[in-house]
Structure formats: C-alpha cells, structure tokens
Write a structure and sequence with these properties.
This protein is an alpha/beta fold. The protein contains 14 helices and nine strands. Strands 1, 2, 3, 4, 5, 6, 7, 8 and 9 form a nine-stranded parallel beta sheet that branches.
Length: 325
Amino acid sequence: MEIPNKKINIDDIKVIQAPLAGVSDVVFRGLIRKYNSKCLMTTEMISSEMLCNNPNPRIIKFEDFEYPLAFQLVGHKVDKMVKAAKILAPFASMIDINCGCPVKKVVVSGDGSAMMKTPMLACEILSAIKEATGLPVSAKFRLGWTCDEQNYVEFGKALEKAGASFVTLHARTRSQMYQGQADWSKIKNLVDELNIPVFANGDIKSVQDAKKCIEISGCKGVSIGRGIMGDFSLPYRIEKYIENNEIIDEPSLAQKIEMLKEHLRLEVINMGEVNGIKFMRKFYNYYISSVRNASKYRSILVTLEKEKEIIEVLDEILSLHSQNA
C-alpha cells in the first residue's frame, strides 16, 4: 500500500528532525507535527540486516501525519542496504544513509561513522539505493574518524557525485563522540565545496543556536535531535526564523509541563503503562531543567510507576514554581 502524500520537495526543507535511537519514536515525531512544523521527519536508525531478516516495514511504527518522512538505514553491505531500501520504498519520502553514528556496537562492524573510512563503499551504496528505488537519497556523516583524519569535504564531494540529494554534517569527529563543542565553521568548508544543500547538525538547542550556526556556516538548514527533547515547538520556531526572521518565545514552564503530560499519556497508550513510563524516564530532566531543585524532582519522578502519580508530582512542581515566581 502506497502512502498518498509521501512526496518531498527538498527545496522546502528548513529543518530536519534528526533520528535518535530509543528517543524519536512515532509519538515523538507526532508531537513535533502538532506544532505545525513542516520539518522533515526521520525514523529512528533502521538496521538493514534486521529488516532483511524480517522484511515487514510495519515493524517500524509510522503514521500518515508524519509525512514527509525519511527512513534512515544503517549498514555496510550493498546488497542488504539495497534490499532494505526496496522494502521501505513504497512508504518512504526518501532514504537517509547513516554514516555518522559513533557508537561502538555500530562502528565495530563497519557501519555508521566507520563508513567514513570506506568512502567508495558509501558512494556505491548511495548510488545503488537511488537506482533501485528512484527515491531521493541523502547521507549524514561526521568530520571524520579522528581529529587527524577529517575527510568530510572529500566525503561530501564524493557523495554528491554519487547522486546525493543533500547531506547533513555533524560537526564533530567520531573520536569526539558527543564531547566538546561542534565546530560549525567546518560546515562552511563543506557548503563552499558542494552544489547540493548542506544541513548542519550538532549543539543546536535553540532558535539562537540555529541563527548563529546558519550565519557561521551558510548552511541550507539545520538538523536537530536532542534539542527537541523537552520542547516539541523548537523545529517550528526555527522554521519561522529561517523563513522570515520571526523570533517566537520559548515555551513557559507551564507549557512544558503540559507537553510532558501529553508525551507521557501518548507513550502509555503506545507502549502500555509499565513500558511507557520506563521509556519516559530519560525525558524528565529536559522538561523540568529550569525548575529550582530540578534534580530532586527528577529523582522522585524516575521512581514512580503510575501515570497518575507522575501527573500529581508535575502539578506540584508547577504549583511551587508559580508561588516562587
């Protein structure tokens, strides 16, 4: 069954929701759409090996309202990557190739950012997927494997030649993981060398961050992941800035608490109360970080096992904050 509204216009993209394993599920993506964001949604990273072993795209949860929707694939075997892409093609607006994940269990087999050590293989995979599916194909990668092996410009130029519709650059090396500051000035080097759009990724957690990153790099737009945690309005607010320099205020604590309640409610519906609440524990600090004694409240919240109990604590946090404001 084909999705009727899956077509994508690359020129319209200003913001990409970056995939976050174990975070950016269908509920997460749906809450971004609630704020009228036009951003390109991306599924969590999908293993080509896993999908080929269980060739049912519905093991990955997605909904019609998410479109345009990119499916991100990870792997290093051309045949498996192509087979997986063909399974997803009827449902995908486009395919994104993960050449940036730095996690050891991913790179040890040659996947993720390890692909930067085999650029010709990355290009072969991209070209083969594009030919097999007829879909736009992009790739996300890093500055290089180490600080002494920064081949991102050459890597990007090769991907462009192979037929990439756009690329996304996370401005750290694999060896840096997520430490230190992303170097947005390096993104400008790539922008200057490519004729396809370049999206910036890394340390973009506010409209002001996006503004500064765009000014430094000259990128087409931004890709944001962790910055959305605790603020589903961020992609929309960044889009408004890019489109017409409009600065929309960050949500208040009361608005963030309401976001958290809705996020919790939907995950409980999606996963059941036990698993939904376990899943939500990683998010609490992002929502309540501005609250006095936030660590104390987080310590309480992560012990609770009932949705009703969590709502009561959230209401208490909001009440105390209002009294102290």
